[in-house]
Amino acid sequence: AVVSTQSTGELGLLVLLLFIFSVSFGSLMYYIEHATNPQFNSIMQGCWWAIVTITTIGYGDVVPQTWLGKIVGSFVLTLGIVFLALPMTIIVGKFSNVYEKEKDRE
């Protein structure tokens, strides 16, 4: 509980970045894919694809078909791995600090 209250700023930033990335890359993928790929029939469908790709869930229900879409998809997937790894280092660092303080109190 202590770690989660100390990390609210970082977790809030994570949610904000997820929103910004999903809208940006979802819109980009819609404009790249909508002419040739009926799966990208709206920007919201592109945002759904971006959220699923950034969070590395990867349902496979919406996939890019053009070569440019696949390149952007690869970039978004790589960004998602980094996006999920960076906050973990912050949370682990906060946990370590709290653990050391609790250990020193005893």
Helices and strands, in order, run as: HHHH
Question: What does the main sheet amount to?
Answer: none
Task: Report the total helices.
Answer: 4
Question: Beta-strand percentage?
Answer: under 5%
Instruction: Report the strand count.
Output: 0
Mean pLDDT: 90
Which secondary-structure class do the elements indicate? mainly alpha
The helix content, as a percent range, equals: over 70%
Give the low-confidence spans: none
Q: What best-fitting shape do the alpha-carbon axes yield?
A: elongated
Terminal Cα separation, in Å? 19 Å
- What's the alpha carbon Rg, rounded to whole Å? 18 Å
Write the topology of this structure.
Elements: H1 2-6, H2 8-33, H3 43-54, H4 67-105
Helix pairs in contact: 2-3, 2-4
List keywords for this structure.
single chain; 106 residues; mainly alpha; elongated
3D structure, described in words:
By secondary structure, this protein is an all-alpha fold. Helices cover 77% and strands 0% of the residues. It is built from four helices and no strands. The longest helix is centred in the last third of the chain and has 39 residues. The mean pLDDT is 90.
Task: Write a brief structural summary.
The protein has 106 residues and is mostly helical. The chain has helices at residues 2-6, 8-33, 43-54, 67-105.
